[in-house]
């Protein structure tokens, strides 16, 4: 499958990995929108948030558990951070493999553009 994140998972494309287990991978975003900006993805290809269902929601819960752990490890838990999922065209999704952005270490504005 021609999916850039699947290629990162199988090692075809290098990434700056932060965390990995059987179910998920976390790595630094190549185009940082904040001093700390990493992505957490399921290893199993899921297209977008539209495809979250009772079969895979345990993995999504696990992703959030890992985000909480990594935010502590990277020192942004106290200052705060933002978890973002862009879904589909209007959501601004550019990579069609479900991913959660974690942004921190800067005063993020709301609402986003
Ligand atoms: P989205 O617009 O929500 O689909 O986000 C896709 C994100 O993937 C963007 O923030 C990109 O900078 C990031 N990205 C694309 N290719 C890579 C890569 N090879 N390594 C790390 N991050 C990437
Ligand atoms: Zn994929």
TrEMBL record:
GO terms for molecular function: catalytic activity. Residues 4-113 form the HIT domain. A motif (Histidine triad motif) lies at residues 97-101. Pfam families: HIT. CDD domains: PKCI_related. The active site is at residue 99. PANTHER family: HISTIDINE TRIAD HIT PROTEIN. This is Histidine triad nucleotide-binding protein. It comes from Clostridium isatidis. The lineage of its organism: Bacteria, Bacillati, Bacillota, Clostridia, Eubacteriales.
């Amino acid at each position: 499958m021609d999916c850039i994140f699947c290629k990162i998972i199988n090692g075809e494309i290098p990434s700056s990995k932060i965390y990995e287990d059987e179910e998920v991978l976390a790595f630094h975003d190549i185009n940082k929108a904040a001093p700390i900006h990493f992505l957490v993805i399921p290893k199993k290809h899921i297209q977008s948030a539209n495809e979250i269902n009772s079969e895979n929601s345990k993995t999504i819960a696990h992703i959030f558990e890992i985000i909480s752990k990594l935010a502590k490890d990277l020192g942004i838990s106290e200052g705060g951070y933002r978890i973002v999922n862009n879904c589909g065209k209007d959501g601004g999704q550019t990579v069609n493999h479900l991913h959660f952005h974690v942004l921190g270490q800067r005063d993020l504005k709301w609402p986003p553009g």
